[in-house]
Specification:
19% strand; 220 residues; single chain; TIM Barrel; alpha/beta; eight-stranded parallel barrel
Protein backbone atom coordinates (compact mmCIF):
# COMPACT_ATOMS: atom_id res chain seq x y z
CA UNK A 1 0.00 0.00 0.00
CA UNK A 2 1.39 3.36 -1.06
CA UNK A 3 1.34 6.64 0.84
CA UNK A 4 0.97 9.48 -1.66
CA UNK A 5 1.75 12.95 -0.36
CA UNK A 6 -0.36 15.61 -2.08
CA UNK A 7 1.32 19.00 -2.31
CA UNK A 8 -1.19 21.78 -2.94
CA UNK A 9 -1.95 25.33 -1.86
CA UNK A 10 1.74 25.78 -1.02
CA UNK A 11 4.59 27.84 -2.40
CA UNK A 12 7.44 26.09 -4.20
CA UNK A 13 9.67 26.71 -1.19
CA UNK A 14 7.10 25.19 1.14
CA UNK A 15 6.77 22.14 -1.12
CA UNK A 16 10.49 21.48 -1.01
CA UNK A 17 10.57 21.97 2.77
CA UNK A 18 7.69 19.53 3.28
CA UNK A 19 9.43 16.96 1.09
CA UNK A 20 12.71 17.40 2.97
CA UNK A 21 10.86 16.57 6.19
CA UNK A 22 8.72 13.68 4.93
CA UNK A 23 10.39 11.94 1.98
CA UNK A 24 11.66 9.02 4.08
CA UNK A 25 8.10 8.00 4.95
CA UNK A 26 6.22 8.51 1.68
CA UNK A 27 6.09 6.52 -1.55
CA UNK A 28 4.51 8.79 -4.16
CA UNK A 29 4.75 12.57 -4.52
CA UNK A 30 1.76 14.40 -5.99
CA UNK A 31 2.24 17.84 -7.49
CA UNK A 32 -1.19 19.39 -7.00
CA UNK A 33 -3.26 21.14 -9.64
CA UNK A 34 -2.90 24.55 -8.04
CA UNK A 35 0.87 24.25 -7.83
CA UNK A 36 1.11 23.19 -11.47
CA UNK A 37 -1.00 26.22 -12.43
CA UNK A 38 1.32 28.46 -10.42
CA UNK A 39 4.70 27.05 -11.44
CA UNK A 40 4.04 25.02 -14.59
CA UNK A 41 6.02 21.97 -15.64
CA UNK A 42 9.17 23.40 -14.06
CA UNK A 43 8.21 22.30 -10.57
CA UNK A 44 7.59 18.73 -11.76
CA UNK A 45 11.11 18.72 -13.20
CA UNK A 46 12.55 20.13 -9.98
CA UNK A 47 10.83 17.63 -7.70
CA UNK A 48 11.76 14.69 -9.96
CA UNK A 49 15.38 15.84 -10.04
CA UNK A 50 15.43 16.13 -6.25
CA UNK A 51 13.69 12.80 -5.61
CA UNK A 52 14.43 10.60 -8.65
CA UNK A 53 13.52 7.36 -6.84
CA UNK A 54 10.02 8.58 -5.95
CA UNK A 55 7.03 8.08 -8.22
CA UNK A 56 5.77 11.53 -9.26
CA UNK A 57 2.06 12.17 -9.82
CA UNK A 58 1.13 15.27 -11.81
CA UNK A 59 -2.42 16.16 -10.82
CA UNK A 60 -3.24 17.75 -14.18
CA UNK A 61 -6.98 16.95 -13.93
CA UNK A 62 -7.05 16.75 -17.71
CA UNK A 63 -10.52 16.88 -19.27
CA UNK A 64 -9.60 17.82 -22.84
CA UNK A 65 -6.52 18.00 -25.09
CA UNK A 66 -5.48 14.69 -23.58
CA UNK A 67 -2.50 13.88 -25.80
CA UNK A 68 -0.93 17.31 -25.39
CA UNK A 69 -1.29 17.48 -21.61
CA UNK A 70 -0.11 13.91 -21.09
CA UNK A 71 3.01 14.56 -23.16
CA UNK A 72 3.64 17.74 -21.16
CA UNK A 73 3.49 15.87 -17.86
CA UNK A 74 5.54 12.86 -18.88
CA UNK A 75 8.25 14.87 -20.60
CA UNK A 76 8.57 16.92 -17.40
CA UNK A 77 9.24 13.77 -15.39
CA UNK A 78 5.84 12.68 -14.11
CA UNK A 79 5.26 8.95 -13.77
CA UNK A 80 1.48 9.32 -13.50
CA UNK A 81 -0.84 12.08 -14.68
CA UNK A 82 -4.49 12.48 -13.74
CA UNK A 83 -7.47 12.61 -16.09
CA UNK A 84 -11.07 13.29 -15.09
CA UNK A 85 -13.48 10.37 -15.46
CA UNK A 86 -16.16 12.61 -16.96
CA UNK A 87 -13.86 13.41 -19.91
CA UNK A 88 -14.80 12.22 -23.38
CA UNK A 89 -13.85 8.61 -24.07
CA UNK A 90 -11.53 9.83 -26.83
CA UNK A 91 -9.66 12.04 -24.35
CA UNK A 92 -9.14 9.11 -22.00
CA UNK A 93 -8.07 6.81 -24.83
CA UNK A 94 -5.62 9.42 -26.10
CA UNK A 95 -3.96 9.83 -22.71
CA UNK A 96 -3.68 6.07 -22.25
CA UNK A 97 -2.05 5.82 -25.67
CA UNK A 98 0.54 8.43 -24.69
CA UNK A 99 1.12 6.79 -21.33
CA UNK A 100 1.85 3.50 -23.05
CA UNK A 101 4.33 5.21 -25.37
CA UNK A 102 6.17 6.70 -22.39
CA UNK A 103 5.79 3.54 -20.25
CA UNK A 104 3.89 5.64 -17.68
CA UNK A 105 0.42 5.55 -16.12
CA UNK A 106 -2.89 7.41 -16.17
CA UNK A 107 -4.88 7.85 -12.96
CA UNK A 108 -8.57 8.46 -13.61
CA UNK A 109 -10.11 10.84 -11.07
CA UNK A 110 -13.66 9.74 -10.23
CA UNK A 111 -14.69 13.09 -8.73
CA UNK A 112 -18.37 13.64 -9.44
CA UNK A 113 -18.98 10.15 -10.81
CA UNK A 114 -21.98 8.37 -9.29
CA UNK A 115 -23.04 5.97 -12.06
CA UNK A 116 -21.38 2.56 -11.71
CA UNK A 117 -21.83 2.01 -15.45
CA UNK A 118 -19.06 4.51 -16.01
CA UNK A 119 -16.67 2.10 -14.26
CA UNK A 120 -17.47 -0.57 -16.86
CA UNK A 121 -16.86 1.94 -19.63
CA UNK A 122 -13.54 2.98 -18.12
CA UNK A 123 -12.36 -0.61 -17.90
CA UNK A 124 -13.29 -1.15 -21.55
CA UNK A 125 -11.20 1.91 -22.43
CA UNK A 126 -8.18 0.29 -20.81
CA UNK A 127 -8.17 2.14 -17.50
CA UNK A 128 -6.36 0.36 -14.66
CA UNK A 129 -5.80 3.03 -12.00
CA UNK A 130 -8.59 5.14 -10.49
CA UNK A 131 -8.88 7.63 -7.66
CA UNK A 132 -11.89 7.85 -5.37
CA UNK A 133 -11.91 11.56 -4.70
CA UNK A 134 -13.82 13.37 -1.97
CA UNK A 135 -13.37 16.91 -3.28
CA UNK A 136 -12.00 19.87 -1.35
CA UNK A 137 -15.29 21.74 -1.42
CA UNK A 138 -17.15 18.58 -0.39
CA UNK A 139 -14.85 18.27 2.62
CA UNK A 140 -16.53 21.31 4.14
CA UNK A 141 -19.40 18.95 4.92
CA UNK A 142 -17.26 16.35 6.69
CA UNK A 143 -14.54 13.75 6.28
CA UNK A 144 -14.08 11.20 3.49
CA UNK A 145 -17.23 9.13 2.98
CA UNK A 146 -16.41 5.43 2.74
CA UNK A 147 -19.67 4.84 0.87
CA UNK A 148 -17.78 6.11 -2.18
CA UNK A 149 -16.29 2.62 -2.31
CA UNK A 150 -19.69 1.39 -3.50
CA UNK A 151 -18.72 2.75 -6.91
CA UNK A 152 -15.98 0.13 -7.31
CA UNK A 153 -17.31 -2.78 -5.24
CA UNK A 154 -18.18 -4.78 -8.36
CA UNK A 155 -14.94 -3.88 -10.14
CA UNK A 156 -12.09 -5.57 -8.25
CA UNK A 157 -9.57 -5.31 -11.09
CA UNK A 158 -8.97 -1.59 -10.69
CA UNK A 159 -5.98 -0.32 -8.75
CA UNK A 160 -7.58 2.16 -6.34
CA UNK A 161 -6.29 5.33 -4.73
CA UNK A 162 -8.35 7.36 -2.25
CA UNK A 163 -8.13 11.08 -1.53
CA UNK A 164 -10.01 13.71 0.41
CA UNK A 165 -9.24 15.23 3.80
CA UNK A 166 -7.66 12.05 5.18
CA UNK A 167 -6.26 12.32 8.70
CA UNK A 168 -4.76 9.97 11.27
CA UNK A 169 -8.22 9.75 12.81
CA UNK A 170 -10.05 8.84 9.59
CA UNK A 171 -7.32 6.58 8.21
CA UNK A 172 -8.38 3.33 9.99
CA UNK A 173 -11.84 3.37 8.36
CA UNK A 174 -10.24 3.77 4.94
CA UNK A 175 -7.66 1.05 5.56
CA UNK A 176 -10.50 -1.36 6.23
CA UNK A 177 -11.46 -0.93 2.57
CA UNK A 178 -7.97 -2.09 1.46
CA UNK A 179 -7.20 0.56 -1.19
CA UNK A 180 -3.87 0.38 -2.99
CA UNK A 181 -2.86 3.98 -2.36
CA UNK A 182 -3.77 6.51 0.32
CA UNK A 183 -3.47 10.15 -0.76
CA UNK A 184 -2.87 12.61 2.08
CA UNK A 185 -2.49 16.37 1.79
CA UNK A 186 -3.08 18.72 4.72
CA UNK A 187 -3.15 15.79 7.14
CA UNK A 188 0.62 15.83 6.69
CA UNK A 189 1.50 19.23 5.19
CA UNK A 190 -0.37 21.15 7.92
CA UNK A 191 0.70 18.91 10.81
CA UNK A 192 2.74 20.43 13.61
CA UNK A 193 5.33 17.69 13.07
CA UNK A 194 5.07 16.68 9.43
CA UNK A 195 7.72 13.98 9.57
CA UNK A 196 6.02 12.32 12.53
CA UNK A 197 2.59 12.53 10.90
CA UNK A 198 3.87 10.84 7.74
CA UNK A 199 5.73 8.23 9.78
CA UNK A 200 2.64 7.40 11.86
CA UNK A 201 0.43 7.10 8.79
CA UNK A 202 2.88 4.88 6.95
CA UNK A 203 3.31 2.75 10.07
CA UNK A 204 -0.45 2.34 10.40
CA UNK A 205 -0.64 1.29 6.75
CA UNK A 206 2.14 -1.29 7.16
CA UNK A 207 0.46 -2.75 10.24
CA UNK A 208 -2.84 -2.99 8.37
CA UNK A 209 -1.12 -4.88 5.55
CA UNK A 210 0.40 -7.34 8.01
CA UNK A 211 -2.92 -7.92 9.75
CA UNK A 212 -4.73 -8.32 6.44
CA UNK A 213 -2.12 -10.82 5.27
CA UNK A 214 -2.54 -12.93 8.41
CA UNK A 215 -6.32 -12.70 8.12
CA UNK A 216 -6.24 -13.83 4.48
CA UNK A 217 -4.08 -16.84 5.35
CA UNK A 218 -6.47 -17.81 8.12
CA UNK A 219 -9.39 -17.82 5.71
CA UNK A 220 -7.62 -20.10 3.24
Amino acid sequence: MNLQLALDRLTKEQCMQVLAETHEHIDWIEIGTGIIKEYGMAIIREVKASYPSKLIVADMKTCDAGKYEAIQAFEAGADITTVMAFSANQTISDTIEIANQFDKQIMIDLLGITDENRMTELKELGVNLVSLHFGKDMQQEGEFQTDLFQLIKNHPNFEVAVAGGITLQSLPDLLAQQPDTIIVGSGITQAENRSEAAKLMKGMMKLNEINHSYSSRGNN
